[in-house]
Amino acid sequence: MIRHVLQSWRSLRPKEALAFISAGLLFGAIDLTLLLELPVGDQLPQVVARHLVVPLVSCVVLLLCWLPAARSNPVHPARRQRLVAATLIGSVLTIAVVYPLAAALPWPSLCDVYSMTRGKPKCNVFRFTAVIGNTLWVFMPALMIVGVLEFLTLRRRQDQAAQDLLREHSQLRRHALASRLAALQAQVDPALLFDALVAVEQAYDRRDASASARLERLIRHLRVALPRLRDAGATLGSEAELIASYLDLLRDLGGDPPTFDCELGKRGAAQLPPMLLLPLVQRAVRLGHPGHCWLNVNGRITLGFDEEGLCSDDADLASLRERLAVLGAQLVCRSGEGRTEFTLELPA
Q: How far apart are CA 123 and CA 110, in angstroms?
């Protein structure tokens, strides 16, 4: 219990302290409006000081009583009752502190000034008949302040819950996209596979010396392209291997795919969402006739072709950029001087 109270006091936020201090100054200023009607004279500084110090002390006591209840379980069914009880206890303690404080202060109050101007004795601040009324006078405004703060706290919790829900939704989208990309990685173009199998069979029928090498390259491509069930993602090295095996397969089918150079170094083991680079190669082969393709990493992943005009927007490029946007990545294309380069910027 004591630890909770101390922790709640240490958790005081500047906005909460400002709210209580502002309320104290406001109520003190309301009392001081009587200065417009009473001739105070040279006692003005003392009167102002008294009517500002007393409300501020009252608000400090209320604040210290409110904090333990405010830091209690936010979903407890008796939270409202706790807040009301804490406010009532704070009001009683405020009166218990303010009465001796007011009696000890040497500064006159507005009531004292009014009594002196009427030739009456000073106000008796220790009248017990006024204790209940003064307690209610403190309790009602304090309860309104607590209600406003509780409303703002509830609003803040709801906003935080909404942000957490959006963050969780974004993570689910990322996981779903990763699953879709893994499925795409596992897919092998049926027409390409059929043509490759037919070409290998014909090579064996012709007793072609390259038949065995063609079969090895086909097996290599299938091993790279088929799903690796225990792999959660891909690496730069595996994606480069997938591109190389794909281009070798096209070459075996009598095509004229670009040569492929890859300079990854130690970055070959870097994690990369699967099926991000091969679609760019497939698109470049379909749209143009590049003779050379390269992949390098220098802070950013760059996939280049020795042909211009591959930056035009189409459905494939738009789909890839949409997937990258969900992953928090960005694809930048630059074309000119006989080359096109795709730069992939991944989140840290």
A: 9
Please give the DSSP secondary-structure letter assigned to residue 290. -
Taking only the tens place, the pLDDT of each residue in 210-230 is: 888 888 888 888 777 765 444
Burial class (CB in 10 A: 0-12, 13-18, 19+), 228: middle
Sign of CA dihedral 130, 131, 132, 138: positive
Q: Is the dihedral of CA 71, 77, 83, 86 positive or negative?
A: negative
Q: CA-to-CA distance for 220 and 62, rounded, in angstroms?
A: 75
Q: Give the start-to-end residue ranges of the domains of the chain.
A: 2-171, 187-345
Pairing label, strands 301-305, 271-272: unpaired
DSSP-derived 3-state class of residue 292: strand
Burial bucket for residue 12 (CB in 10 Å: 0-12, 13-18, 19+)? middle
* 3 state SS of 296: strand
Q: Cβ-count burial of 126 within 10 angstroms (0-12 exposed, 13-18 middle, 19+ buried)?
A: exposed
Residue-wise pLDDT tens digits, 94-131: 988 988 888 788 887 777 777 777 767 666 555 666 77
Mean pLDDT, residues 253-259 taken together:
87
| Amino acid type, 294 | W
Q: Please provide the DSSP assignment of 88-124 as one string.
A: HHHHHHHHHHHHHHHHH--SPPHHHHHHHHTT-PPP-
Q: What is the mean pLDDT of the chain?
A: 83
30 vs 32: CA distance, rounded Å? 5
Nearest Cα neighbor of 47 from 131, 115, 117, 105 is: 105
To the question of domain 187-345 being in CATH 3.20.20.190, the answer is no
